[in-house]
Amino acid sequence: MMTIEKLNEFGADTKEGLMRCCGNEGLYLRLVKMIPAEKNFDALKEAIEANDLKAGFEAAHALKGVLGNLSLTPMYERAVTVTEQLRTGADADYAQEVAELLALRDRLGELCAE
Hints:
The protein has helices at residues 4-10, 14-20, 25-34, 39-49, 53-69, 73-88, 94-113. It is an all-alpha fold.
């Protein structure tokens, strides 16, 4: 079962996330459990594989927002990195950056399934 303690161990700033949900722990946990199924993860992966940096930026930017709002810090920080690299068109290993973000998504999914 997903708990605040497990999210803290994951690196989430649950105090901040709960504040954004007006202290409603049930709401916060329900929203967090929705993250692994967020469609923008797949959209980002597909865009990078297709070398569509514009679509990749849009997906990464959307993820940055939702991950930041829930204070899922490790994922948010990775999403910020990917978003900013895509924004500038920097020469980067996007596939590696995205793979790391997807690995965090998968880890969160495992926590949600426990």
